[in-house]
Amino acid sequence: MVINLDQTLLKQIEEICVARGVRLTPQRKRVFELICANKKASSAYELLEDLKESEPQAKPPTVYRALDFLLEQGFIHRVESTNSYISCCSCNAHKHHSHLLICDNCSNVIELQDDSLVTLLTKNAEKHGFNITNHVIESHGICQQCSSEIEE
C-alpha cells in the first residue's frame, strides 16, 4: 500500500516524540501511516495485513505494541464499538475528549471535538457526586454521502 501522507503531520508526531523522550520506531511510524491513510477505522488485523506488505515478518504483537504506543501518546483513538483505530485530528496537540460519528454503511469515522458537550457531561456527573475518569462517545448512523446515495 503506497501512502501519500502529509509530511507535516509526520514531522509533528516525530517532534512530539523527541520532546517526550519516547521512540517512534519504524514499525510505530508505519502503523500510524496506515491508520492515517484510511478514512475508515482500521482493525489490528487489517493493519497487520497492510504492514506485511512492507514487513513480511510482522506478527500481531508488533501491531498491538505499536497501537498501544500510539494510543498512549494520543496520536490515535480506539473506536470501542468496533474495536478499531483512527488517527486523532489534533495528534494530541492538546488533551481532549472526542465524539466519534461512525457510518454504519461505509464505516467512515468523523472525529468531533465539542468542549460544551464534555462540560455538560462533567456537570451532570458532578450533580451525582461522580468523577468521570474516562468517557467514550460514539454515535452510529448514516453519513451524508451514504444518505445521498440511498436517496438517489
Automatic annotation (TrEMBL):
SUPFAM superfamilies: Winged helix' DNA-binding domain. One of its GO terms (cellular component) is cytosol. Fe cation binds at residues 96, 135. GO terms for molecular function: DNA-binding transcription factor activity; transcription cis-regulatory region binding; zinc ion binding. Binds 1 zinc ion per subunit. The gene is zur. This is Ferric uptake regulation protein. InterPro entries: FUR (IPR002481), Fur_C (IPR043135), WH-like_DNA-bd_sf (IPR036388), WH_DNA-bd_sf (IPR036390). GO terms for biological process: negative regulation of DNA-templated transcription; regulation of secondary metabolite biosynthetic process. Homodimer. Its main location: cytoplasm. Keywords: Cytoplasm, DNA-binding, Iron, Metal-binding, Repressor, Transcription, Transcription regulation, Zinc. Zn(2+) binds at residues 103, 106, 143, 146. Belongs to the Fur family. Its cofactor is Zn(2+); Mn(2+); Fe(2+). Coiled coil: none annotated. It is found in: Cytoplasm.
